[in-house]
C-alpha cells in the first residue's frame, strides 16, 4: 500500500515538474510526413511558431510543387467563420450516445498541461493540426492523448466523457503527448472544470469513455485544407465532426469516382498525385459508417469548407 502511494506521488511530482505543454512522459515519435511549409498565412505570430516547433518535427520535406507554394503574404481565405459555429445547446451529452455498442470504460491517470495556456492556445497548431479552430459549444474542454490512444491521429477531434469524483465533462482530443493507454492530459481550464479547481498537476482514477461529440447533426462538419495545400498537394483535416473519421475520399468528377486518401500523422488526410482542378468533392466516412459528401471543396491552403450537415 504505502509503496504504491509513494510511487504515485513521485510520478505526479515528476509530471508536475515536466514544464510547459503537456507533461510529456516521452515526446511524440518523429514522423516522416511533411509539416506545413514554414511560412504560411496561418503562422500568425512568433509565439505560435515557437509552440509549433515543439509539436512538429524540425526537419521535413515539403511535397508542394514550388509553383504551388502559397505566398506568405497571400491573404488568408479562411473566412468561413469557424468562430461563429453555433451548436444547439438542447442536446445533452448524455443523449448523444456512444460510438460502439459496448462502450469500454478506462480508468487511469489524469494530468494537466504545465504552464498557463488558455484553452485554444494550448493546442491550436498542435499535433491534431487544428489551426484557428475553437471548441464547439457544448464541449467542455480538451485533452492530449498518448501514442497508445492517438491511433495515428485518427482519434483527433473525437470526444471523451471523463468523470472524476462524481463530476463528468465532455472533452475533445486535440493534441498528442506522452503517457499510456489510459492517461488523459487536459488543458488547465478543462482540468479546473473536471477537478473543481484542484491546483495539483495529476490525479489517479479518472474514468473515461469515447462518446459521440455533443454537436447537433444540423451543425456542419468542416473540411480544413492544411497550410500549403493545393491541387498539387491535397492535405485535409476533418473538424467539428460528431464522430471520429475513418475514411476521406476525393473526387474530381463530381462524385462518379473516388480516390482514397491516407491518414498521415498530424491528422492530415493526404492524396497521392495531382488533382486536375482547384476544387474537388470530398466524401468523409465516420467510424460508424455515416457518410457526408462535401461538394466543391476549395483546395487552397488554409481554406475551410463547411459541409451541409454532420455525421
Ligand atoms: C501539444 O502537446 C505537446 C506535447 O506534450 C506540447 O509540447 C505542446 O505544447 C502542445 N501544444 C501545442 C500547440 O503544440
Ligand atoms: C498507465 O499508467 C498508470 C499510472 O502510471 C498505471 O497505474 C496504469 O496501470 C497504466 N495503464 C496501462 C494500461 O498501462
Number of domains: 2
Query: Biggest β-sheet, characterized?
Result: 6 strands, mixed, barrel
Q: What ligand molecules are bound, each kind once?
A: 2-acetamido-2-deoxy-beta-D-glucopyranose
- Order of helix and strand elements from N to C terminus: HHEEHEEEHEEEEEEEEEE
Number of continuous helical runs: 4
- Ranges where pLDDT stays below 50 over 5 or more residues in a row are 1-21, 23-101
Helix content: 10-25%
The CATH topology of the largest domain corresponds to Barwin-like endoglucanases
Strand order of the largest sheet: 1-5-2-4-3-6
What is the CATH level 1 assignment of the largest domain? Mainly Beta
Describe the fold and architecture.
Residues 28-48, 64-89 are annotated as: Disordered. InterPro entries: Expansin_CBD_sf (IPR036749), Expansin_CellWall (IPR051477), RlpA-like_sf (IPR036908). This is Expansin-like EG45 domain-containing protein. A hairpin with a 2-residue loop joins strand 3 (159-164) and strand 4. The strands form 3 sheets. A 6-stranded mixed β-barrel has the order 1-5-2-4-3-6. Strands 11-12-8-7-15 form a 5-stranded antiparallel β-sheet, with no helix packed on it. The chain folds into 2 domains: 2-211, Barwin-like endoglucanases (Beta Barrel); 222-306, Immunoglobulin-like (Sandwich). The protein contains 4 helices and 15 strands. The longest helix is centred in the N-terminal third of the chain and has 15 residues, at 2-16. By secondary structure, the protein is α+β, with helices and mostly antiparallel strands. One 2-acetamido-2-deoxy-beta-D-glucopyranose binds next to helix 2 and strand 4.
Amino acid at each position: 500500500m504505502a509503496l504504491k502511494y509513494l510511487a504515485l506521488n513521485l510520478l505526479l511530482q515528476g509530471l508536475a515538474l515536466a514544464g510547459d505543454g503537456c507533461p510529456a512522459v516521452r515526446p511524440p515519435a518523429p514522423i516522416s510526413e511533411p509539416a506545413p511549409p514554414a511560412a504560411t498565412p496561418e503562422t500568425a505570430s512568433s509565439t505560435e511558431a515557437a509552440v509549433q516547433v515543439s509539436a512538429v518535427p524540425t526537419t521535413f520535406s515539403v511535397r508542394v510543387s514550388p509553383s504551388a507554394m502559397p505566398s506568405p503574404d497571400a491573404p488568408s481565405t479562411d473566412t468561413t467563420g469557424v468562430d461563429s459555429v453555433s451548436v444547439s445547446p438542447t442536446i445533452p451529452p448524455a443523449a448523444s450516445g456512444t460510438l460502439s455498442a459496448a462502450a469500454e470504460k478506462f480508468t487511469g491517470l489524469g494530468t494537466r498541461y504545465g504552464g498557463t495556456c488558455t484553452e485554444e492556445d494550448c493546442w491550436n497548431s498542435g499535433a491534431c493540426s487544428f489551426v484557428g479552430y475553437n471548441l464547439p459549444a457544448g464541449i467542455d474542454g480538451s485533452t492530449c492523448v498518448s501514442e497508445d490512444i492517438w491511433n495515428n491521429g485518427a482519434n483527433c477531434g473525437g470526444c471523451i466523457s471523463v468523470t472524476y469524483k462524481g463530476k463528468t465533462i465532455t472533452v475533445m482530443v486535440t493534441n498528442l503527448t506522452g503517457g499510456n493507454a489510459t492517461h488523459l492530459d487536459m488543458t488547465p481550464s478543462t482540468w479546473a472544470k473536471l477537478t473543481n479547481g484542484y491546483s495539483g498537476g495529476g490525479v489517479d482514477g479518472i474514468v473515461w469513455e469515447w462518446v459521440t461529440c455533443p454537436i447537433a447533426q444540423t451543425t456542419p462538419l468542416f473540411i480544413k485544407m492544411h497550410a500549403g495545400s493545393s491541387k498539387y498537394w491535397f492535405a485535409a483535416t476533418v473538424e467539428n465532426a460528431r464522430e471520429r473519421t475513418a475514411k476521406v475520399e476525393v473526387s474530381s468528377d463530381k462524385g462518379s469516382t473516388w480516390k482514397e486518401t491516407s491518414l498521415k500523422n498530424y491528422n492530415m488526410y493526404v492524396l497521392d498525385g495531382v488533382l486536375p482542378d482547384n476544387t474537388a468533392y470530398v466524401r468523409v466516412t465516420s467510424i460508424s459508417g455515416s457518410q457526408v459528401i462535401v461538394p466543391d471543396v476549395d483546395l487552397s491552403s488554409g481554406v475551410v469548407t463547411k459541409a451541409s450537415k454532420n455525421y
